[in-house]
Amino acid sequence: MDNVWLSIIVAAYNVEKYIGEALLSVLDQIDKRVEVIVINDGSRDNTLGEIESIYASHPLGQQLHIISQPNSGVSEARNAGLKVIKGRYVAFLDGDDHLLPHYYEKLLEILNRGDCEPDIIEFNAIRFSHLKNGNHQAASLFKTNVCGNYYCNSDEDVVSKIFSHAYWFPWARIYKSELFEDVQFPPGKSYEDMMLIPQLYLRATCITGIDEALVGYRVNPEGITKNPSSKDLTDIESVIDYYLEMSARENNSFNKKMMMLVACQGALFYKSISNDMKGYFRPISDISRIVKKVNRHKKNIDVDVPFNTRMLFLSPALSNLYSYIKKFT
């Protein structure tokens, strides 16, 4: 496979019920110019057996490059894939999600235009609970691409809008592989996507958006967003600290603003996690501490933040009260 243009990294951990569906959604639409790197991250169920079965039975099964490693977490699984990719573009897929049937066709349509080679191509997703007879159940459009259809743009307004919405899911776009030179997903951290993906956007000079859903994103009731822990608070604070430090060192004024915007949105995530864990009144002092930390760095940077974030920085107590009232409206 010397002419590979796209490497798809599939991270799989204990997904024996879903990994077959995920891999078939890829293999049933690609051609021989795509490699699929499957990282079995120490699964304790029959995930590896399902992967090997598809490798043996599918006509394109030998395009699967299977790597098994001790359980190390999704960041290390993706990093293991990044070390061996051959394609000039790279995409990510979680082992319980899948590609929609026109994913590959739409990407080729963009790349075959020929007048520009985007650094990043972003798109939307379908959020769903499960499949029944091949149909998505409890499905809704997930607009991870907030700017609609656009082609080879690096306009500051477009980038600012992307950063304001903070949909940093790795699977919601494909990337030039060279963007990952000297960076990787942070090992052992939750919110690893928020730590890395904004940096890739700031490295990009040409971004394209497809206003269509190309990925099926399975809502996992056991996921960290549904069951947050104190580690999640620690990890999101480390994201905030990282971007505060990056912003302080950055000389480019626009990049400095975007890094500060990530830190501000991180504070909003911290508030949301705290509310889920502790309610709306107990965590106010902790949330206030984070807000004060960010404000110390942000006071000399003119960064435009969305309404909910603006309210948080105006008053954490008022922000929590507003969130509490919204639960019942």
CA distance, first residue to last residue: 55 Å
At CATH level 3, the topology of the largest domain is Spore Coat Polysaccharide Biosynthesis Protein SpsA, Chain A
Q: Which percent band covers the strand fraction? A: 15-25%
Write down the domain tally: 2
Q: Given the C-alpha coordinates, what overall shape results?
A: globular
The percent of residues in helical segments reads: 40-55%
* Biggest sheet details: 10 strands, mixed
Query: Total helix count?
Result: 11
Rg calculated over all Cα atoms? 20 Å
Quaternary state of this entry equals single chain
CATH architecture of the largest domain: Alpha-Beta Complex
Give the overall pLDDT as a whole number.
Answer: 94
- H/E element string? EHEHEHEEHEEEEEHEHEHHHHH
SSE-based structural type: alpha/beta
Query: Count of DSSP E strands?
Result: 12
Enumerate the spans where pLDDT stays under 50 for 5 or more consecutive residues. Answer: none
CATH class of the largest domain: Alpha Beta
The CATH superfamily of the largest domain is identified as Spore Coat Polysaccharide Biosynthesis Protein SpsA, Chain A
Protein name: Glycosyl transferase family 2
Pfam family, one: Glycos_transf_2
InterPro entries: Glyco_trans_2-like, Nucleotide-diphossugar_trans
GO molecular function: hexosyltransferase activity
Architecture blueprint of SSEs:
Elements: E1 6-12, H1 19-27, E2 34-41, H2 47-57, E3 64-69, H3 74-82, E4 89-94, E5 98-99, H4 103-111, E6 120-128, E7 130-132, E8 135-137, E9 140-142, E10 150-153, H5 156-165, E11 173-176, H6 192-203, E12 207-218, H7 230-249, H8 253-278, H9 284-298, H10 307-314, H11 316-326
Parallel strand pairs: 1-2, 1-4, 2-3, 6-12
Antiparallel strand pairs: 4-11, 5-12, 6-9, 6-11, 7-8, 10-12
